[in-house]
Amino acid sequence: MEYKVTHNKDKNRFEVEIDGLISEVDYMLSDDTMVVTHTGVPTELEGRGIAAAMNKALLEYAQKSGIKVKPLCSYTATYITRHPEYQSLVEE
User: Fold this and answer.
1) Which stretches in the chain have pLDDT values below 70?
2) Structural domains for the chain
3) C-alpha angle 25/30/67, rounded to 5°?
């Protein structure tokens, strides 16, 4: 299923809203690096691929913007491991 992922720059996160519930991937900007700190999906929405859709959107944004990614969030780190096309974005 496709989700409408929004980049909420004011809150430094990518998010999806479904039925008034917000799922998010939070990050902090440090120079030219997005430090990904948290992926959260409400229990009612788990298992639908929302976290994957948000992380893909974040990584696509970073790729297009020439920004590196530092995945402190375990979900994001695992997502990158499973999708090696994004490995080059990881800050060494």
Assistant:
1) none
2) 6-89 (3.40.630.30)
3) 70
